[in-house]
């Protein structure tokens, strides 16, 4: 089975057990994510992005106008062009007419009535890729320094000797750089894959410019050494390049990173909260102008802060939040950074679990039309969880109790005060944040245990910070459980236990053990135990990269529909990024999707829509018919007139041709009114 290739469901195979688990990995993780996976050729790294110029074409035997290149598993040339009257490649934009088909359901008496619907969208994507800067809060941390080092190593095309041979810089683990999408079938009926990054013009990671803040004044070379993530040979080569990079002073409020980080804190922005906010804004402007950037994106990758309550009148609205800062009341450093970025018109992404993006910050982002995304990078363990639970529940297996209280203890059902006892100690019922329906006996469990020795691990051992982490890790299976009323009654929830221990010796090499127990038919039991060891930062860094590249791309996409011809961008809470976040932030009222495969499809299909390609449906009907009858190619007839006002209001600041972020980032940003 090759990368990106899913085994077929047919034949005599029983779709259960080990094979299914392996298949899940191959389907959902980019090739190369797993050690030992087939090496992927590095496509166009650092080279100018495809311009979308059609390649020479010639007709095949059966009239397929696909280029008769010898198609390998994956195209070495990532260039492609969609030949359709619905797609127009202009000098500045790619414009695609797109039929969005879905269905709405209404409950009428005892019957669910389903009405298929169709909406016509016009997607417009600006082709000009900007010069992009990334500012990391916690730049000198393991994740920040590793990401910076990785981009540099790729840009310089470094290779270094290790005890198992020479290694070369690559971007394994990045969805956009090392993941692929299937474009369709070639003349032989085989799927043609291209790198994700070639779907639409995207910033090349090698071209990113980094800057950032840190409460520790170590330069990036020293930070890299402290992190102990990279091989020595690579560190030596990177040292002279990283030495010159020194983090800007950051905001340190001891009560938020309750674990005492004061040993590190020697590089601080002093003054009142309002002065600190101003300094952060000045830093962003300074970076933008001194590095000659078109856009800046800010990413929080610093310490996990403690969880805070949202207080009405203080951080519930944009106005109140700005006033709270001006008055110098309690506000977390991460919220301060978020507010500063939003005011500067820069997207803000929260890579830690705390609730940085309070309602006031979300409202501010909405008002300023700036993207925000969060919370907490979804790296190893949670990513596996969002695959495995989807796999178990999706195949009709009920995740069953082991940790916590077993069905036996409960004597078969109903409410019992003992349930509360279950929630104490290390084991906490899952979904602890949300008010729940009637409690049922715990008849399922997912138990996760970790130990790690990096700074994050050390400080997660403090209860208030651990609580933030626990909340973000625990709601991960929500949607999957709720999607299956056959297995789970309303309000029924599995035991979900998360333990994190600090073991300095293992450093950045995180150990994760998970146990999933599910119920087979007729009372059988199915237990899966997973052990994972990997360098935590090497998992997180490519996720940070994807977040930045996808956010920037979304800023260049705008669309209108046949019913609303006024161009608009994506909602300021960028839920398209859910694939990359443990506790995805979504616009109010929107369903949260945690299942990894659905999250990946969402990104893929929206990007496909932008170039007028239908959603990936995996039906492969071409190969399932008695008689070959599918006309795979031929003149496509444009049926509908263009519904959207073409070039509607190009002068409007937020027009289709503009930055969906609204603010032209080069403009002098507005100062807060308070
Ligand atoms: C198609 O074009 C390629 C070069 O562009 C050429 O090598 C090949 O022979 C052509 N095939 C046919 C069927 O004309
Ligand atoms: C943190 O520890 C240092 C000593 O290492 C001490 O001087 C400082 O007061 C402590 N700060 C807090 C906020 O506990
Ligand atoms: C909201 O503001 C109050 C008062 O400044 C503060 O105590 C609380 O921690 C804040 N909540 C969040 C989530 O930042
Ligand atoms: C890096 O990010 C990952 C994913 O969020 C996290 O688990 C890890 O603890 C972070 N590392 C540090 C040193 O903060
Ligand atoms: C570097 C640092 O301040 N580490 C702290 C992390 O949290 C633990 C537990 O609260 C503290 O003991 C450490 O000092």
From TrEMBL:
GO terms for molecular function: inositol-3-phosphate synthase activity. One of its GO terms (cellular component) is cytoplasm. Keywords: Cytoplasm, Inositol biosynthesis, Isomerase, Lipid biosynthesis, Lipid metabolism, Membrane, NAD, Phospholipid biosynthesis, Phospholipid metabolism, Transmembrane, Transmembrane helix. It is an enzyme of class 5 (isomerase). Its EC number is 5.5.1.4. The keyword Transferase does not apply. Residues 444-537 form the Myo-inositol-1-phosphate synthase GAPDH-like domain. It catalyses: D-glucose 6-phosphate = 1D-myo-inositol 3-phosphate. Pathway: Polyol metabolism; myo-inositol biosynthesis; myo-inositol from D-glucose 6-phosphate: step 1/2. The chain crosses the membrane at residues 20-40. Signal peptide: none annotated. Its main location: cytoplasm. It is found in: Cytoplasm. Residues 662-674 have a biased composition (Polar residues). Belongs to the myo-inositol 1-phosphate synthase family. This is Inositol-3-phosphate synthase 1. It comes from Enhydra lutris kenyoni.
